Structures are given as structure tokens and as C-alpha cells.
UniProtKB/TrEMBL annotation:
Key words, A-Z: Signal
Name of the protein in question: Lipoprotein
Signal peptide: 1-21
Organism: Algibacter lectus
Length: 446
């Protein structure tokens, strides 16, 4: 009986082998199909590190970048020594970096110095290997050697850089009348390293606002609308005393404003004003406005009531029925959005500080929150460790991969980690270790 069982097993195995060989030789037989959508597809995660110049956290000693796979980025046993082994991104001060949507390309425009305004593009090949590709071009003749620029969300095709210059004006008797703001906007073909368009405009506020001494003093963060026919540019307002033309620091903060231009012509400037949020919309070093569900959502800063996320609808006007105040949502006072990034599901990670932040070696302590744009809710992400020297004012980049958002956490001069936030579930994964050096810090992922 035992022998018979063995024979049956042998015959069954032989039959299986023959059947497999027959099926493999038959071109018409069904073949195994790999569902690529169900596979975990890796992408590069590039970590940006800002070296100290003269003071801890100033980031003026140069920017280094280092890339790893998304699998390694989620692995806490992996260690990244960007300051020792990273690629130096050309820039006199902190580089202004952007990445392609799939993480395979890094775009850089040098900030200040002899190379300020130079655009370069690099293929990401892992570790410290970033291979320059395409032609280098300077946008300095259009927007100066310290340009404020951003990559538009148009499939990695276009970058836009801006500047503003101001001049006080007076009547025939020498009395102050207004401050004129001249803006310049250049669009850059990122693929072919070509200038697409350049326009300059004088941009005015209302007669009443200008008579009081208000003017646009800084602009940044151009963003395309859903139709792709308007460009929104964030603005900061300043004020002078009309009697003396001296800067006025104690004044009423006006409603948040955005400059709107036709696109791609960059013509017909206008200014729209929010009645919900007050303060600036130009952001700082990170993208400040994003397209979601047909509308543009924009953070504001220096709002007396705490930062808001504002909404600009498809009619290219602020939606003043959308009231999302971070103070109220987080239960803090003086919330200030330093950087933020939504995933495609309308859930976002926000880097912020508030009046209760500790004062660290480089400035106020930063935190991260998970935000829902539809529900207008926000909750501090507790699973990320915080320290009084955790400084996020210069934070630049988040990686969005599906519903996951990658970020860096490390106090100035101390080691930290990559963290990955699943925006759908709120689950936080502690990832690769970030090895720091004295006085330096990490400014994001790309």
C-alpha cells in the first residue's frame, strides 16, 4: 500500500510537470498576468539638508541632497548621512529645489551669488548621484539673482519665477500719493530650458488702501487654476506712514490678497481680496497654494486670528463662505502655517508653529498636523516626536505618494527620522534615520 501511494504521488508530479511544459509551449494558453497597480512601485525619495552658515539653523552653508528608495525611506534601520555623503546642490545660500511628480528629476535654481538665477536639472540615480541633464539657463536677466520660483502643476512642464520692486510716488508739492509696485513674471520651459514668456506690470491696490500707505511688498508662489488659464500669485502687503513715508509696523492687517494674471500670456493683472482671512499669501520657501477638486486652496500667514486655509473657486474669486481657521481647528492661538501639502484625497500635512511654541536655538518650535480640507478639521500628529529646537520655518518639501506623505523630522543639530503619514488612516510610520551635524537641519523631501 505504501509503495502504491508513492507511485501515485510520482505519477501526479510527473503529470503536473508535463502539463506545465505543455502550457508554456502553447502560445494561445493563458499566461500569468501581473497586476502592476497592486504592486508596490518604488520611487526615489530625495532628502534635502541645509548646512549651518554662521548661526544654527540659518541654512546658509549650502544645501545637500541624498536619495533613497521609498522602501528604504520607510525602514528605520537605514541611516542617511546627507551632510557627509550628499550631493551639493548649486546655490550660494539655501537652494530652492523642486522635484518631478514621480521623484525621478530634481529642478534647481541657484539662489544669490555669482550663479544666482541659474536653472539646472538632475536625474535622480540614488545616493549622492544626481546627473545633470539638459541645458543650463539663467533667468537672472528677468527676475534677478535671488529669484522666487516654483514648479507649476502642469505635468512638470513649466516653472514660474517672480519679483516685485517698489517706488514711493508724490504729487507736485512733494506730498506722498502712493507706492507703486512693479511685478515681473517669467515662465520657464523645464524640459527644454527655454524662456516661455516674461511680462512686467504695475499692480495697484484700491485708491483708499494706497492713500493710507498700503502696497504690495513681496510676491511668491505662482499657482495655476484648474482651467489652466489663470495664474495666481501670492502677495504680502506692507505700509508706510503717508506723512513721512517711513515704514509703519503698527497697522490694520487687510484682507488676504492674490494677484491674478491671464495664462499663458501673463497679461491683464487684477487683485482679489478675501474677507475671511487677513495677512499674507506669498508663503516663504514652500509651495503655498494647491489645486484640489477644481479649486485652489491657499494658506495665509501673519493673520491676526491665526493662519487660514483659503479657497479660490473656478470663477477666480475667493470663496468667502469657506472659513477654515487653524486656531479654531487645533485649539491654539497664533497658528502660523510654515509649509503644507495635500494629497489627492483632500487630506494634508501642515507644518506650523503657534504662540505657545518654545523658543529654540533657531526660532520657534514647529509641529505637524493632519488636515482635512473638506471637513475643515486639523489634528496635531502626536506620533512624531517634537523638541524645542525642531525648526520648520525654512521647510521646503513634502513627497506625496498616493495618500502617503513623506516628511523629515530632526531638531537643529540633532539626529531624526523620515516619517510617513498615511493621510487616509492617520497611521504614522517611522522611517530612515537622518544623521545631523552641528547647527544644521533638514528642510524636507522631494
Amino acid at each position: 500500500m505504501k509503495k502504491q501511494i508513492l507511485n501515485l504521488k510520482t505519477l501526479a508530479l510527473l503529470f503536473s510537470v508535463l502539463l506545465l511544459a505543455f502550457s508554456c509551449s502553447d502560445d494561445d494558453a493563458p499566461k500569468e498576468v501581473v497586476d502592476e497597480e497592486t504592486e508596490d512601485v518604488s520611487r526615489w525619495i530625495t532628502v534635502a539638508a541645509a548646512r549651518m552658515g554662521e548661526n544654527p539653523g540659518d541654512g546658509n552653508g549650502g544645501t545637500l541632497i541624498y536619495s533613497i528608495s521609498s522602501e528604504d525611506a520607510k525602514d528605520p534601520t537605514v541611516s542617511i548621512e546627507a551632510f557627509e555623503n550628499g550631493f551639493i546642490a548649486p546655490s550660494n545660500r539655501t537652494a530652492r529645489l523642486q522635484s518631478s511628480e514621480d521623484g525621478s528629476t530634481i529642478f534647481n535654481i541657484s539662489y544669490a551669488g555669482d550663479t544666482g538665477g541659474n536653472y539646472t536639472k538632475y536625474l535622480v540615480e540614488g545616493g549622492q548621484t544626481f546627473t545633470q541633464t539638459g541645458t543650463e539657463i539663467s533667468i537672472a536677466p528677468y527676475v534677478g539673482t535671488a529669484p522666487r520660483w516654483i514648479k507649476l502643476f502642469d505635468g512638470d512642464q513649466t516653472g514660474a519665477a517672480v519679483y516685485v520692486s517698489t517706488e514711493h510716488e508724490a504729487d507736485a508739492d512733494g506730498n506722498y500719493t502712493r507706492t507703486n509696485a512693479t511685478i515681473g513674471v517669467v515662465t520657464l520651459d523645464l524640459e527644454n530650458s527655454l524662456i516661455n514668456n516674461f511680462q512686467e506690470h504695475d499692480v495697484a491696490l484700491t485708491d483708499e488702501e494706497e492713500a493710507l500707505g498700503y502696497y504690495i511688498s513681496r510676491i511668491d508662489m505662482p499657482t495655476l487654476n484648474a482651467a489652466g488659464d489663470k495664474l495666481y500669485i501670492g502677495a504680502r502687503l506692507s505700509k508706510v506712514d503717508p506723512a513721512t513715508t517711513e515704514g509703519d509696523s503698527d497697522y490694520e492687517i487687510l484682507g488676504s490678497k492674490t494677484i491674478v494674471l491671464d495664462y499663458p500670456s501673463l497679461l491683464n493683472p487684477s487683485v482679489i481680496t478675501s474677507t475671511v482671512g487677513h495677512g499674507n499669501t506669498n508663503g516663504y520657501r514652500s509651495i503655498n497654494a494647491f489645486l484640489y477638486d477644481g479649486s485652489v486652496y491657499q494658506a495665509n500667514q501673519s493673520d491676526p486670528e491665526g493662519s487660514h486655509i483659503l479657497k479660490i473657486n473656478s470663477d477666480n474669486e475667493y470663496d468667502n463662505s469657506y472659513d477654515f481657521n487653524l486656531d479654531d481647528a487645533l485649539g491654539v492661538e497664533g497658528a502660523y502655517i510654515l509649509a503644507w501639502r495635500p494629497a489627492s484625497n483632500g487630506k494634508a500635512v501642515v507644518a506650523y508653529r503657534h504662540n505657545g511654541s518654545a523658543e529654540g536655538v533657531a526660532g520657534a518650535q514647529g509641529f505637524f498636523a493632519l488636515v482635512d480640507l473638506d471637513a475643515k478639521t486639523a489634528q496635531k500628529i502626536e506620533d512624531i516626536p517634537y523638541h524645542e529646537d525642531f525648526y520648520l520655518f525654512q521647510y521646503q518639501g513634502f513627497v506625496v505618494d498616493g495618500t502617503e506623505i513623506y516628511l523629515t523630522q530632526a531638531p537643529v543639530g540633532q539626529n531624526g527620522n523620515i516619517y510617513v503619514v498615511d493621510t487616509e488612516t492617520g497611521v504614522v510610520t517611522k522611517g530612515a534615520e537622518l544623521v545631523n551635524v552641528e547647527g544644521s537641519h533638514f528642510i524636507g523631501t522631494f
